[in-house]
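Hello Y.,

Per our agreement to keep a running log of every chain we model this quarter, I'm adding this entry. I've kept the format consistent with earlier entries: sequence first, then predicted structure.
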Amino acid sequence: MDLTHGSVLQGDQELLSDVPMYISSGNEYVKWGGCLHLNKQLSQSLTGTDYRIRLRDGRLGAIRIRKLVNTNGALHVELLFEGLGRLDTKGSAA
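Predicted structure for the entry above:
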């Protein structure tokens, strides 16, 4: 998994910016996926499951949140996601 930062989008609206996220690829179950590392309060602003991410390098991708991991009332949570379609440089994410 590679650590990067990016924005979480719903449609064209930026919900969160400069979010730490881990991205991995080459898994036999999904082409790419990862997790968002968020402050617990920020995670509450993501009420759905389908979003888009825009990485600092300009790549865009559609994601589906699969699981929220919160351990022992921690101040941070991990939102595990799978990538839908390709992680594109042109903004044509599925």
